Amino acid sequence: xRWVISSPSxxxxxxVDVLVGTGGPVVYxxxxxxxxxxxxxxxxxxxxxxxxxxxxxxxxPARGAGSMWQDWDNDDTKLGxxxxxxxxxxxxxxxxxxxxxxxxxxxxxxxxMGASGAVMxxxxxxxxxxxxxxxxxxxSTTDTIGRGTIDLTVGNLGGDPNNMWSTPESWERNDVVxxxxxxxxxxxxxxxxxxxxxxxxxEYYDGKPITDQIAGSxxxxxxxxxxEDLSAALTESGIDHTTDYLxxxxxxxxxxxxxxxxxxxxxxxALY
Length: 272
What we know:
The chain is α/β, with parallel strands linked by helices. The protein has helices at residues 40-43, 46-51, 84-99, 113-124, 144-156, 161-164, 168-173, 199-205, 210-237, 253-256, 260-267; strands spanning 2-7, 12-19, 26-30, 57-61, 106-111, 131-135, 187-192, 242-245. It is 40% helix and 17% strand. Strands 1-2-4-3-5-6-7-8 form an eight-stranded mixed β-sheet, with helices on both faces. Strand 5, helix 4 (113-124) and strand 6 (131-135) form a beta-alpha-beta unit.
């Protein structure tokens, strides 16, 4: 189903893809950098296939392109107003959970930009989500790779990252690697690949600019380092989590799509 949800915090209506379940958990999804009007998880069929024989409700908001799915401190001249943490936790969730039958449990699954946003959102709202999965994300906001990833993600859409977080305190607040305490007690699944191109991906990139393949490889290698860094911080803090490292795979849908099933498997025991 296609729902339209009013967002007072952002001053506009937000389109949401919904696969309506039959009494199970509500699983929220956060998309990658482009966040199209119809989610890639829907248009490519992965969500329908993975959740076809479950009782879960899947909820995927749109139009968050380049936003990191964060509450921005300031409006941006290019990207406008983004208050995604407020929208998901205070505006979207109450509407969805009033309208559908569910068991009171919440999951959150994100990929790429959405993985970063999901883990940050869960860390900033301890206990709101019972299980969180991050596929190929970056989780520091202050180290070299993390800051560079954010600058690239927001800047690629023409936005200014300093409108998102306008003070050093804002940047530090969202650095999950430095302070992952908000994730304690949440079932957490993290995955990333190496950036090495698979045979399937060679076919996918055939006919596309070589820069697409290079970017996919470099972005995934960065995601792998970011994931290892978060895992080390979680281990040091004594916070349980699961990691799944793929030997091959670049940053793109040939790799993302097949990761949904293991991501769901990695958190669903906390949702029932």
